[in-house]
Every structure is written in C-alpha cells, then in structure tokens.
Input
Amino acid sequence: MSDMDAGLPSSAPAPRATVPADVDLDRVWTGVATQVWRRDPGRVERLAGRLLRSPGLARALVVTPSLLLAWIIATVVVLFAGAGATLATGTPYVALLAPAVAAAGIAYAYGPGIDPAWELSRSMAVSDRMVLLVRALAVFGLNAALGLAASALSGAAAALTFGWLIPMTAACALALAVATVTRLAIVGVAAGVAGWMIAVLSGAAASGQLTTAVTSSALILPYLAFAACCGVVVVYATRIPKGTS
Amino acid sequence: MNVDITGLTRRFGRTQAVAGVSLEAGAGVFGLLGPNGAGKTSLLRMMATVLPPTSGRLRLLGRDPGSYGPRREIRRRLGYLPQNLGYYPGFTAAEFVEYFALLKEMPPGEVPRAVAAAIEHVGLGDKARAKLRTLSGGMLRRAGIAQAIVNEPELLLLDEPTAGLDPEQRVAFRALLRDLGQRATVIVSTHLVEDVGAACTEVALMDAGRIVFHGTPDELTARGEGTGAAGDAPLERGYSAVLAAARSSTAVA
Output
C-alpha cells in the first residue's frame, strides 16, 4: 500500500494471509485505483489533442479558464485592447499595436505572479511558450464565443467581436497551427503576427490609409517605443524570480 | 553521471547566487545542505532547467540542457518539486498529478496507472478525488511529491520536500527517498540536517553560493568531532564546524 501512510486508505484490501501468495496486492490495488480515478477526456480535449499532437497541450487548453484570476485579468486586458482597436477604426497603428498589449496581458496573467504552478510548468517537456500560445487561443476563443452571444443584444459587442475577438482568435489559431507543425512557438507567433498585419494593412490599403500607417516617419519611433515596452512587459512577466535560498 | 556540473555560476543583477559550483552525482540520494540564502534553490532551479546559468558547464542525464531537443528529453525524465509549489485549487489531487504527467509527455495510455501509483506512493489514496483547496499543507506537499515522481524520473530534484510534513510522514518520506535513490539520482535541498543523515548517501554543503563541503554524511559528522561546534546531534555539529571554517577562511581572504 502507500509508502507514506501505510494503512491509511480505508478501502485497503483483505489481509495477505487470505489471498494466494502469487497475488501482488499492491499491483491489484493500483489497478483498481487506476480505474476508479481515471478521468476520461471530453470530446473537445480529445479533438484538441489530435490537432495539437499533444495531450498535454490539449489539457492546458481546456483548463485555461479554470485558473480564474488569471482568466479574468487576461480577459480584461484583451477586451481593453480590443476596445481601443475598435474605437480607433481608421488609425491602423492602433490595431497593429493592440495585439502586443493583449499578449503582454495574457503573459502577465499566466506568468509567475498569478499562475501558482508557473515555476513547475517551466520544467515540463511541453514548452511553456506553447502552453502560453494555447492559453492565448483559449482566452480569445472563449471570449469570441461570449461576444457572439452578446452581439445579438448590442451593436458595440458586435463591433468588438467581429472587429477584434474573432480575427484575433483566427490569428492565434494560425500561430498555434504553425507552431504545432514546426514545433517552435516563436515561428508560430511570427506567423500569427504576420497574418494579423496583413489583415490590418489590407484593410488600411482598401481605405487609402496605408501610406500614413506604414511609411509616416513620425510613427516609426512611437511604434518602436511601444513594441519595446510590450517586450519588456512580456520578459518581466515571464521572468524567473530570484532564488530564495 | 546523471549530473555533471563544472564552474556553474548564476547572477541576479549584482548578487551572485551561485559562484562556480562543480558537482557530479550518480544514482543515490544526494543532500544539498546550507543556510537560507546559500544558493541551493538557484542551483536546483538550474538543474531543473528552469533557470539558465550565467556561465559554466551543465550536463544532465548525459545531455546539454542549453539546446531545445536535449532539454526536452531531459525534462521528460525529470521530476521537480519547487520550494514554493503552487496549486490549482479547483483541481483534484489526481487531476493535478495527471496534468503534469501529460505535460511531461508521458504516453497517454500509461498516465492513469502512473497517476494511481504515484498517489498511492505518497499515501494520498483517500484524497485522490478531493479538491486541492480542501487539503492540508502536508497533503499538498505530498501531492507535489506525487507529480514529481509520476514519470519515474531518472533525475529527481526536491526543494525542501519535508516542509509541512509531520514527523511520521517525514520518516516514511525518507524511506521513499532511499527506495527512489536505488534507481535514480535524487537531489534533495534542505536545511534540515536530520533529513540528510537519515536518507542521503552523499552530501554537499553550500554557503554564499559555493560548495564548502562534499562527502558522505559520516565524513561531515567527523568534521565536527572535537571542535566544540554548536549542534544537538553529531551531524549538526559537523555542519556548524564546516560552515564556521568556511566563513573564517573567507573572512581571512
């Protein structure tokens, strides 16, 4: 039986004297416990496991909303960035920079300050960056689903959902797909960012604002400064705290 | 050697947490002793591939964790219990262990049996389906140990594993350590000298980021004989004597 608490389990098997000597009761009990405690993954998790080629990532995807505080923080930042991008329609640089704000918020929410098991997650074979990508998809995807429901009641919710949440869910899905195929999160992120930029810039080009958004020299420094700030936030949010002993 | 470290350092800004540590460890239970702030946790984090070294050479299970592929392979065979292990309060103990078994990329078909065996090993069988938020500190620590051993690791790193365990559980845990040490390299960071004396085949003592002693518990005990060093037990006196000698030599230098 257990090594640390011998005799504790109330469902302990019968005394050894009553069973044949060639029966390993520990093994039998572990077999029983295996069946009793087994958790069967749901359909979504099984499908995600096949698509992501990783049962671990699939599990991380479906449990993302259960980390409630992290989920709320990530959702607030995503909606805040989305509101900015939606209200500033016609100024493409806002839409280009909004994903950086959202990414920094999600990285913070699921970083060491909030995720209680973050340090342990860093020691796992499944890359923590892949887990972060999966969580970003979960945040956008579930919020997009809620946004769709809210769109029936509010025009503002529809603008936010169709102008931000659904396109960002698609960009995240693209990033995750590329990361899964290449097995490199950074390549996936690059693909997702590229996809989003193409979408925003083609919209800007269609409305004749592309030149202003991309080539205006006055915007280059703000772009770089903002991107650097978001980069610092992501690095800070995913840092390793100093050793304590 | 499962752990092969040469001249390992780690800096946090101006603070040098680990200062040129060299160490080798094969199968067995290896105790890492030292006062608070000695650098034990930082060294363990580097061995857990959580924290990259500032400089030096680190090889784990015959591989270089600096590259992605070998690091992933190391992590599949690694068990790690951090000093401050956080828990997902809404998970049951079994779900918690299963989650990390999956993140260790264990074959999914093997996971349910491995989870059951690990939970039984640490005596949490009757709490396997209880939410973590309902468990005591000692039980949570045991859930943490269960996730660390679920993949039958070849390298097991435990940071203050007996914190929160009652005396009976600590005795049982030391027996578990000795059992695990027959097949794997188990490195236990602790400031509890009695844990080392009871379970470890080798011990290193750290102070100010350096290893100031490396040998067997008996050799550490011998260092305290006739020195008048403080301590209630022989091993504690050895610990105090080595620390005092290391600090006085540093002060002279």
In short: Chain A touches chain B through 49 residues (CB under 8 Å). The mean pLDDT of chain A is 78. The CA atoms of residues 127 and 185 of chain A lie 8 Å apart.
